[in-house]
Design brief:
Structural class of chain A: mainly alpha
Order of helices and strands of chain A: HHHHEEHHHHEEHHHHH
Structural class of chain B: mainly alpha
Strand content of chain A: 5-15%
Shape of chain B: rod-shaped
Order of helices and strands of chain B: HH
Oligomer: heterodimer
Chain lengths: ~400, ~55
């Protein structure tokens, strides 16, 4: 591996996009929570909801500000690091990213002022409308970015003249095959991230015996949201990986499952030490048959191996494998915590089980880790001409055979 | 090396500032702060109309 400009450009983009994604995940989810809390305040008149709103809106504002600052950098990196790419796909992803910036700056930033400083200065319904518009703005922003990123993964609705992509059908380009699933997966991820953040902070207050009334209300709301959203997220992730992405990027599934040769009645690899050059695993710790059960929903499904993919298009297995494992295992733990919270609620022990509260404190950053794991699974496995590359839009170039920069 | 150092300083500084502010907010907790006040009082003067006092009666 040599630190040439291409690899450095990819590493820089990987770092900045990973740094950035933490904050939108937080702000999208927190803003949806603020909408819920303010709605409850309007409906019930309970002052506790107003106090919760004012507390979490400070954290939302911090996340929002960091998201804007860290996100601006990436637009420039498209030009500085991947100029040929930007030139070629500009007519497609340029308008999508432009619309994202418009919604972020006009809709979100415009109403953010009312949301943060408008309590008591504007009417309660106008304030609620401002909160809703900021929340809608965060989701619109995410939708446009996901549309652009999904187009890079599964391009559609364009022609290529040898130098530049031209859109012939905007509906097809925007609603490309993976977009609806990836957008829903990301929005759910953001809401779950915020739910675990809120539940973790509230659990800490409960353990410390501080702010008990607000902590209990937040804890209850966040765990209820998590227990509803997590089953949906697991189902959607399964559909996205196996039904949507597998026909387009089978190498991703091969690397995620950690197999080099196509394996019938496949085990589920927990730990592998892959040898990328020789195309085999040096070590594998596996659970028998579980791989076939998870992928094919029966004991005999064959799982394809990475040696089926041409060598120059193979992703680096260890990055994809371990990113996916972190996301999957932590997501499963979060799912179990959500289900267990339903049990505790039913037994009237939600606020008294200190062991579960300690678990929730530990799970406070779990959503952020899963989001990063998901993106590290999605991006390096999209395609590759070099096995060490990370996070650079590439698939359109496989068609165009242009160098990326 | 200069670019890398600047890069790390900028991102490290941003992250440190963010974590400091988050920590401070969480330590303070959801305490009630009075509405319609600011340290200078300017926002209050601009947006809140005080009831006029009767003078000289």
């Amino acid at each position: 591996m040599t630190l040439d400009p291409l690899l450095l450009s990819r590493l820089q983009f990987a770092f900045t996009v990973s740094f950035h994604i933490i904050f939108p995940s937080m702000s999208i989810g927190l803003c949806a929570f603020l909408v819920l809390v303010e709605f409850m305040h309007l409906r019930t008149g309970d002052e506790l909801y107003r106090r919760i709103y004012r507390f979490w809106s400070i954290l939302f504002a911090l996340g929002f500000g960091m998201g804007v600052v860290s996100g601006l950098v990436m637009s420039f990196e498209f030009g500085t690091n991947f100029s040929r790419f930007a030139q070629a796909v500009g007519p497609v992803i340029g308008p999508m990213i432009g619309l994202e910036v418009m919604s972020a700056f006009f809709l979100e930033a415009g109403f953010l002022g009312i949301m943060l400083f408008g309590w008591g200065r504007v009417g309660p319904r106008l304030h609620f409308a401002a909160t809703c518009l900021v929340s809608v703005g965060t989701m619109i922003s995410a939708t446009f970015i996901l549309a652009a990123n999904s187009w890079m993964q599964t391009p559609a609705g364009v022609t290529f003249d040898g130098r530049t992509f031209h859109v012939v059908n905007w509906v097809k380009a925007f609603l490309n095959p993976s977009f609806p699933y990836r957008a829903a997966h990301m929005l759910l991820a953001a809401w779950i991230t915020a739910a675990f953040l809120i539940a973790g902070v509230s659990a800490r207050y409960l353990l410390q015996g501080r702010h008990l009334d607000t902590a209990r209300r937040c804890y209850s709301l966040a765990l209820a949201a998590a227990s509803i959203l997590l089953p949906l997220q697991l189902y959607l992730g399964d559909v996205l990986a196996l039904d949507v992405m597998a026909p387009h990027q089978i190498a991703k599934i091969e690397a995620m499952e950690g197999f080099w040769e196509t394996t019938p009645s496949a085990p589920w690899n927990v730990i592998v030490i892959p040898d990328q050059r020789k195309g085999r695993n040096r070590f594998a710790l596996s659970v028998p048959y579980l791989g076939s059960v998870l992928v094919g929903k029966n004991f005999h499904t064959s799982i394809p191996g990475l040696n089926e993919t041409p060598r120059d298009r193979r992703p680096t297995m260890w990055i994809v494998f371990y990113s996916f494992r972190v996301m999957f295992l932590l997501g499963t733990l979060m799912f179990c915590a959500g289900i267990y919270s339903v049990w505790l609620r039913w037994r009237h022990r939600l606020y008294t089980s200190r062991r579960f509260q300690r678990l929730m404190v530990w799970l406070t950053p779990s959503g952020f880790i899963c989001v990063l794991g998901g993106w590290f699974t999605a991006e390096p496995a999209a395609n590759r001409s070099r096995s060490t590359a990370i996070s650079e839009p590439w698939i359109p170039f496989r068609r165009s055979r242009l160098p990326p920069w | 090396m200069t670019s890398l150092t600047l890069f790390l300083i900028v991102y490290g500084g941003l992250l440190a500032a963010f974590l400091y502010l988050i920590r401070r907010t969480l330590q303070r907790g959801p305490v009630e702060r009075p509405l319609r006040t600011s340290p200078s009082g300017t926002v209050r003067r601009a947006f809140v109309r005080e009831p006029e006092k009767e003078v000289g009666v």
